[in-house]
Amino acid sequence: MNAAVEIREITAAVTRSQGAPFTIESARLRAPQGDEVLVRVVATGLCHTDLIVRDQYYPVPLPAVLGHEGAGVVEALGPNVKDLKVGDHVVLTYGACGHCHQCDSGHGAYCKDFFGLNFGGSDLQGNTAITDPAGAPLHDHFFAQSSFASYALSRENNAIKVPADAPLELLGPLGCGIQTGAGAVINSLKVRPGSSFVSFGAGAVGLSAVMAARVAGATTIIAVDVVPSRLELALELGATHVINSREQDIVETVRAICGGADFALESTGRPEVLAQGIEALGSLGNIGVVGAPRLGTKAEFDVNNLLLGGRSIRGIVEGDSVPQVFIPQLVQLFQQGRFPFDKLVKFYALDQINQAAEDSTKGITLKPVLRMPQ
Predict the structure, then answer these.
(1) What digits encode the pLDDT tens for the residues 12-33?
(2) Of the CATH numbers 3.10.20.70, 2.60.40.1930, 3.20.20.210, 3.90.180.10, which one belongs to the domain with range 7-175+340-371?
(3) How would you class 296 by CB atoms within 10 Å of its CB: exposed for 0-12, middle for 13-18, buried for 19 or more?
């Protein structure tokens, strides 16, 4: 066990109220307990999920320290940590209990406690690890990390060791958005060589799916979006065709290209796009859903189109990833030049978080990554 400072002074971006700008504040973080590790955060991706929680699409209690795509260096260990060591480089990913039926069967993203561990605003006992300077608790444990901060606590099972020669400040988005897109293609849909694949949405998740489809051997890869620069980048990253849905009918164009897609992924969170995605599938086609709308959002589609074509829809969380396996695989693919997700990234300082959020919302930046003050 590594001796840890009992209370550590940190800098954090705090979400105080629904829709309000993030504020940069001093805060205090307790030492790691149990199987927790203390991580000096080098950089953290800003994800769509951070923004919809800020806006209270999901009812995470506020004020809170969000952030769930952290990457950094282990600085201290709780007494029950088994394998990680001080100095290890890690990517922080989603929280899972590690012992329920789904976790035991390799499906931690469907853990029975997933919502509580990732969106509860505390540990499962209602305790927080972060306070403001006056001692008032700040909700935390967001995705079992709350990494919009200079230091973060995670559990050992969601701190994924990565090679020391990989560019650590770039790797945080592998913990959520990028593993979601890539994992949906490789792990969930199991896109196969010679098949056709459509990405509905060419943001960071959708373009990660495009890159993964190329790795998987799909020979027809179609990216759909309304932003021309994203479609240009999609072609650079492996798309064989692009569709600007403001200028072309999606369903007709997909059918003209490939007769109907074998596989598709919906990452926009818009129910009308999901309906178009189902219509664009070929017989026995499969569409995965990763776009997260407001809780309670309904979607409509023609049941007979689904039934008679033998088509399938499935929800996907975190790309069905086993992070301890999949994140190092993505790092290796990146180092080989086969998964160039760095082309999605733009860096910001932590105190530029509101600009990063605005740029992400406007589509100016695909994947903002926040560098932490050191």
Answers:
(1) 999 999 999 999 999 999 999 9
(2) 3.90.180.10
(3) exposed
pLDDT value of position 3: 47
DSSP state of 139: B
CATH number, domain 181-317? 3.40.50.720
pLDDT tens readout for residues 99-124:
999 999 999 999 999 999 999 999 99
- Cα separation of the two ends of the chain: 24
Nearest of 180, 154, 190 to residue 286 by alpha carbon: 190
Supply the pLDDT for residue 4.
56
3-state secondary structure of 340: coil
Q: Say if residues 205 and 47 touch (Cβ distance below 8 Å).
A: no
**Angstrom distances, CA of residue 370 to CA of 12, 71, 318:** 12, 10, 21
In 3-state terms, what secondary structure has residue 265? Answer: strand
**Nearest CA-CA partner of 350 in 66, 132, 155:** 66
The encoded tokens of residue 53 equal 């929680």
Cis? peptide before 373, omega within 30° of 0: no
Dihedral, 72, 77, 82, 88 alpha carbons, nearest 10: 30
Phi, psi (5° rounding) for residue 104?
-65, -25
Give the orientation angle of helix 271-279 with respect to helix 250-258, to 10 degrees: 30
Q: Report d(CA 332, CA 318) in Å as an integer.
A: 19
Structure-block tokens of residue 82: 């088994």
Asked if 94 and 104 count as a contact pair (C-beta separation under 8 A), the reply is: no
Kindly list the domain boundaries of the chain, sorted by start residue.
Answer: 7-175+340-371, 181-317
State the residue for tokens 């540990």: 123
Identify the DSSP state of 121.
Answer: S
Q: Report d(CA 312, CA 356) in Å as an integer.
A: 36
Residue 207 and residue 195: Cα distance in Å, rounded? 17
| C-beta neighbour count of 5 within 10 angstroms | 12
C-alpha–C-alpha distance, residues 120 and 57, integer Å:
14
Contacts of 5 (CB under 8 A, 6+ apart): 31, 76
**CA torsion sign, 225 to 230 to 235 to 239?**
negative
